[in-house]
């Protein structure tokens, strides 16, 4: 009887384990979250609304399909180039950013079924007399990096005798034309139409050409189940009429909705203070964490560079040479997209940003640590050693206290430099203060006023840090 009871109990436990495992697996499958990259400023397909939430045709389609097919998406506004590179390196699962399906891209990406058909148009200032491509001879034209519209413009540059200048986002491309630096820009028709409707001072002067299809993409050979889910969900959206409603919601937008808002300096500040403060908070957090690790990194390699050992000094010099010589932008992209493509391991944007600043700022810290110690008279070490102090103790008790006084202003100055350098990390999708400004401008096109606010905030923070530096310096010298 006991054996039967034990057998039944074991069978019951096994059944519960198998059933439970299946339930957990089914729940995990149902709740699977995909990381999806998108552009930062590409209305009406993706842009941040007044509440600083990302909306647009691409975003709504992706979220509707996720809801329909039982999975979740984490939308990451990285910028078009960064999003494409992040997919290639395996950092994210897919990209939906008004990406035109081309044979060249098909070699590197697997595309889902097309979800939007478009064509390229040329736009000029409202008062421009240019009416077509023939009027571009000898002129400068603005294009956006990595876009089909940009490729089309470059293919016509030699034929019509114009030169191109490239920008990473649409707003800067538009402003280059509005400000008169370029005479025209090339853009996909619905994007250009939306910009004009929301108050952009441009006009379209050509008919749509080189029509293409937008597609959702994943890295070639990966995530076939995600592509299948997208295709299935897209068919459902079209059949139910929800797809048409999403398009109409954005393509029928009128300029009046934005024009009714208060576009004065203080009106814009009041409306966007939440997004700006979030960006400032991210900037300060990133700066504090980065400077902490950069200080450890810099002090270690700085001290290594003053040891009475040729190999140690050579290592220090090499590290300082490499990380001071690499541009911060290149280092950020290498860490965020280059390393994952080699290792297959994802690196979160925040972590990649901290590592980038640690290496770059740490190299400069190491250099002035070496300089600060080197500025202490050599006789100090000789005197300490003559009194019988070991090298390490002489360094801790005699040399470092004097060297630290020399280094303090440089430490504070490096903190300020790190704060400013965080703006470069917007290239890998970190929404710090500069990126927050870009997102706001994409919605209201008030570049001058928004950049004025961002500049003022940076100046206030840097001024406070400068005062702190002088205060600490005075206290240490008293």
From TrEMBL:
GO (cellular component) term, any one: ATP-binding cassette (ABC) transporter complex
Compartments (UniProt record): Cell membrane
Entry's Gene Ontology BP terms: amino acid transport
Transmembrane spans: 284-307, 319-339, 450-468
Signal peptide from the UniProt entry: 1-29
Single GO MF descriptor: ligand-gated monoatomic ion channel activity
Record's bilayer topology term: Multi-pass membrane protein
Keyword Amino-acid biosynthesis in annotation: no
Keyword Transmembrane: yes
The organism's place on the tree of life at top rank: Bacteria
SMART domains associated with the record: PBPb, PBPe
InterPro entries listed in its UniProt record: AA_ABC_transptr_permease_3TM, ArtM/GltK/GlnP/TcyL/YhdX-like, Iontro_rcpt_C, MetI-like, MetI-like_sf, Solute-binding_3/MltF_N
NCBIfam families, sorted: HEQRo_perm_3TM (TIGR01726)
Classification via PANTHER family: ABC TRANSPORTER MEMBRANE SPANNING PERMEASE-GLUTAMINE TRANSPORT (PTHR30614:SF46), MEMBRANE COMPONENT OF AMINO ACID ABC TRANSPORTER (PTHR30614)
Family: Belongs to the binding-protein-dependent transport system permease family.
Name of the protein in question: Glutamine/glutamate ABC transporter, membrane-spanning/substrate-binding subunit
């Amino acid at each position: 009887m006991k054996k039967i009871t034990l057998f039944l109990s074991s069978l019951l436990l096994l059944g519960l384990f198998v059933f439970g495992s299946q339930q957990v697996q089914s729940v995990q499958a149902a709740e699977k979250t995909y990381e999806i990259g998108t552009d930062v400023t590409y209305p009406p397909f993706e842009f941040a609304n007044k509440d600083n939430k990302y909306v647009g045709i691409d975003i709504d389609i992706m979220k509707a399909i996720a809801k329909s097919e039982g999975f979740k998406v984490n939308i990451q506004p990285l910028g078009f180039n960064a999003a494409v590179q992040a997919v290639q390196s395996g950092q994210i699962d897919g990209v939906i950013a008004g990406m035109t399906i081309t044979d060249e891209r098909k070699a590197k990406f697997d595309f889902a079924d097309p979800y939007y058909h478009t064509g390229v148009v040329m736009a000029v200032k409202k008062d421009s007399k240019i009416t077509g491509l023939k009027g571009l001879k000898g002129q400068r034209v603005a294009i956006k990096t990595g876009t089909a519209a940009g490729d089309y413009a470059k293919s016509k540059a030699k034929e019509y005798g114009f030169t191109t200048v490239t920008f990473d986002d649409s707003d800067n491309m538009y402003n280059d034309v509005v400000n008169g630096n370029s005479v025209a820009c090339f853009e996909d028709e619905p994007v250009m139409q939306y910009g004009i409707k929301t108050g952009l001072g441009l006009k379209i002067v050509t008919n749509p050409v080189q029509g293409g299809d937008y597609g959702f993409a994943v890295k070639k050979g990966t995530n076939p189940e995600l592509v299948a889910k997208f295709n299935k969900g897209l068919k459902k959206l079209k059949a139910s009429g929800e797809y048409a409603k999403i398009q109409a919601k954005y393509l029928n937008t009128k300029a009046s909705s934005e024009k009714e808002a208060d576009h004065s300096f203080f009106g814009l500040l009041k409306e966007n203070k939440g997004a700006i403060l979030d960006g400032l908070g991210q900037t300060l957090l990133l700066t504090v964490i980065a400077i902490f690790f950069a200080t450890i990194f810099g002090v270690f390699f700085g001290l290594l560079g003053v040891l009475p050992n040729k190999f140690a000094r050579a290592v220090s010099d090499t590290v300082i040479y490499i990380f001071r010589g690499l541009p911060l932008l290149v280092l950020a992209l290498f860490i965020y997209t280059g390393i994952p493509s080699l290792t297959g391991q994802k690196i979160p944007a925040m972590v990649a940003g901290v590592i980038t600043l640690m290496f770059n700022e740490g190299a400069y810290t190491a250099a002035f640590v070496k300089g600060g110690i080197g500025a202490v008279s050599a006789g100090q070490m000789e005197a300490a050693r003559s009194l019988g102090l070991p090298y390490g103790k002489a360094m801790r008790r005699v040399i470092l206290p004097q060297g630290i006084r020399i280094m303090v202003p440089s430490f504070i100055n490096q903190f300020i430099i790190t704060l400013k350098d965080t703006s470069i990390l917007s290239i890998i999708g970190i929404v710090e203060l500069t990126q927050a400004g870009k997102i706001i401008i994409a919605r209201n096109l008030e570049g001058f006023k928004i950049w004025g606010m961002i500049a003022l905030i940076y100046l206030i923070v840097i001024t406070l840090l400068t005062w702190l530096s002088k205060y600490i310096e005075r206290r240490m010298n008293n």
